[in-house]
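Exam review. A common question shows you a sequence with its structure tokens and asks you to describe the fold in words. Practice with the pair below. Do the first one on your own.
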Amino acid sequence: MKKILLLPLILLSINLFAQNNNSFIWEEDGLECTTITAGKLATVDGSVITSHSDDSHRGRTNIWVEPAADHAKGEMQKMHIRLWDKDVPGKMQRYKLVEVGEIPQVDHTFQFLNTAYPCLNEKQLAIGESTIGGHPELKSDSGMIECQRLCMLILQRCSTARQAIRMTDEVLKKYGWRDAGEVLTIADKNEVWHLEIYGPGKGRVGALWVAQRVPDDHIAVNANASTIHEIDLKNKDYFMASDNIYSLAEEFGWYDRKKDKKFDFAYVYAPESRTKIACRRREWRVFDLLAPSLKLDPNSENYPFSVKPDTLVSVADLVRVFKDYYEGTEYDMRKNITVTDKEGKTVISPMANPFMKGDELRMHKVNGGWNALGERSIAVHFTVYATIIQCRANMPDEVGALCWFALDNVASSIYVPIYGNATDLPETYKTDGRETGFSKDAAWWAFNRLGNLTCQRWGDFHKVVDKVWNPMQQEFFDKQKDIEKQALELLKSGDRKGAIQILTNFTNDCGNRAVDKAWETGDMIWTKFDGWW
């Protein structure tokens, strides 16, 4: 009888927790995402690179191939915006898509990889993203196009970065930007640009934007703060901007061309973004890892838009950067969570983890978060997926377009190769784990579970995970060369279908192996280390 009475109380408690768990997990709904770019003379193999960690903690988890298509005259493309969906007890928080209008479709759309923020098309055009925010007065609900939909339109319709920027200007003038300030890092096989976009002001249709090209021998980063400062629109090879770039600032009183000595875009349109340590520290860390000889100050308010790396950058280097959580620096959020080891030395506790939730940060008196002094590392527990994308002019599009794709916290995950011209992906990658709830049908859950388990005793468990992923990651890099050589030979012989099939097979084999190993490693940690946490 007691058990019967207890059951409703348990269910009630679970229901109340589900309804109020926002404060438990997400004490601050801050900005998210980091994107790093590299020009073709800054990389070991001549790749142009863009990247993205989608740290939204609420976006969809799946990826699929959206095939190329021909469209009938008069066909329309629906536009949607994302809104918070209502909380449903026992279900994960998520966005819902709300249709806000439609625009004319073009005659032909290219194949692309459909992630939450579509990331790569068959023509080697790639996109990374990071939210900036900007002055709230700029945001307009009168437009039709938000960030994810713009990424889709770019990849459907464009083949170069400059074409993408020009198309963006055209569609936003006509249909309007309906989002906060965003940066898109747009790469093709020859160059990469950072495109910052903001609204035109409440009640208006249009947009404000500026774009700066990364020099070919440089790397750049955006970590949720505007990084474009002084601009030279006469230098069309490096700068582009909307027609209203000066007039809008003058209208709102943020700039006076008669009184102000210079026009600093970041401080005119997104000054608050430059105040956040959680943004600036990531900028410093990326540059310090790849260009340590510069000895940049970790507490600076501003850094160069781009820098020349000390050595040429590889995909493996960027994997290392995206896994970083300030280990070995004074900004490691575990540094004061210490114990005395067997030798009497004070060391970081193996129970301390760099991915503490809000309540854990408060409990340990760690200032992590989005406020002025809060830390936020590059790797975070709320990453949904991450990409490192290679665009390669020395290879045909079938082979050159390559997305390295990781699920969940990059620090406990692995990047698998997905070619932009692959015809299909494993079912588990195409399945949205946010819709299924915990399930082996969705690849994301394998990595999410493993990441959460690893955090329970990070000091010990991350070594176990690294021992699994590091050799497999290197194996994927090594096999990539052989697979691409075979594909190039088939293309040379005229067998395009055969070449794409080899790349598709490699994509699916790596993806399936990684998911299986993630489940296996999670099971092993759960079993072997029972009682360790």
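Now try the second one, then compare your answer with the model answer below.
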Amino acid sequence: MTAKPTQFDISSTFSQLVTDFNTVSLDLGGTGRLTTNQDSDAVSAINELEVAIRGTSNNLAASDITTTAKNLVGSVNELDAELGTITAGAMGTTASTVSAAVLELHGEVTTATTNIATINTSLGTVSAGNMGTSASTVVTAIAELEAEIDTLNTKVSPATSLTTTATTTVGGINELDAEIGAASLATSATTVKGAINELHGEIGTAISGNHLTAGNIGASLNSLATKIGSVTAGNMGTTASTVVTAIAELEAEIDVINSQGAGPSNTAIGTLTDLTTSTQANLVAAVNEIEAVFDASTHEISAGTNAFDVVSGAFTIDASGTIRLDANTTYVAGNLDMSTDTGRLRLGASNDLIIFHDGSNSYVQDNGTGDLIIRGSSNISLQAAGGTIGANFAAAGAVTLNHAGNQKIITKSTGAGITGQLDLSSHLDMPNNAIVKLGTADDLQIYHTGTGGHGNLDNQTGVLILTSSETRMVSTDDPTEIVAKFISGGSVELYENNSKKFETTTTGIDVTGNIDLDNGAKIRSNSADAITFAGANVTMGGTITPSVSLTTSASTVAAAINELKASIPIVYNAAGSALN
């Protein structure tokens, strides 16, 4: 059998009830401030708001909504139009919209959860035996004690001064009853306190602390009734996108916490001993320890040396704005990954150096003043895929350029070396007296002296062979003016002012124009003088044999001429002189 409470227990409970009555009296304020249709007493006003929220049903469903719209979004939009503009001052929050205010209250609910855990620890195990009542829950036990206290209230004087005009418990209750009214409650609770607690759970933390802006529920409800703004899931910190569903979502989370108990092993908030903070006694102390490092109001981390160190696992920062690391040294032990092709690593006060990948190519882009300097402690190697070296810069040594990993160009102390073929798309430009040397012993040299405008093709060993199907020598003033032609398998031609004067043929030579010979010039045959020129005189150095048969008896040209001369009669002119 449950033990009956002693007079001391009843007196202590009674004192607590008086304190609660005083608190309720202060929270309710004057009924004249209510803007509901039922403004004569708080119960009628609460019932009116209860009907507006849930109708006559205890379920929040589309069929129970009393607005013109029959869905939550439409209902919220309809109420939003009716409620009007919202300000932070009117809601008693730092946020100026309902969604942000809900998010702010969400944080306070988190703190309240921690406080519930502390209270739950203080309460201990709830059972009929431990409470000394026949009821097995706190609410029904209080109701049982309330009923017993009601029968004794005329005989017990309150231990705490009442804030009503009445000085006794009965008188105070009667006075509050007159203010509250005789209307029946529309809540599932049958007492004023139970109804307030029930609505308090639906509305949120509105009574405790500084959450009321007008000092009591009535005036605060009037202020909030005209001040609901834009609602989004992001602003409220919930998956729900309407106020009603957001509240329902938070209520469901709180119900999970309540159903599991807010003790140190609550599965909704984790096990306190799993905290990695130095304080593991409760969540409040752990949160305060984190707050000492992370200032939530300024969104900054500040705790001196090694203020922030992720020692294991993954760490993600999701921000739409700028993340600034203000430190002398920022150390990343692992990889620094930018998972999108729009990300850029920007260095310098004016983003002078940018490193990025655009989805197709990778870039190291210098946008600032000065040079782009790549410096290594030893050699610097530029490599393609698979490690194939394209260029290598030796420390205080040669620079090599490779093709498919094979060296083709190398710098030397005397210049540069080339392995393989050099293809030029334009000319090779060299100063005067610079020599192009060909051959193992530099046997063939091409150069320009710069003195007298002379160019030189100097073959120092063997024969100089020019090979071509046709070789031409042309004028430097006019490349179309031919000086000489050397035709493969054909003639050699010599020109004067672009006009051919001399040509070799299969039988000898062909000369166009005069042949000017020096005095005493000779034409020789088989080392013997055949014809000698002495001014206008020509001396034949041998026998002239005609190429056709002579009809004279003489067989040589000279004898034939003499023979013919002897047979020609003497001819005399008009003067009588003989013609020879």
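Model answer, second protein: Residues 98-123 form the longest helix (26 residues). The longest strand covers residues 406-412. Full marks require stating both points clearly.
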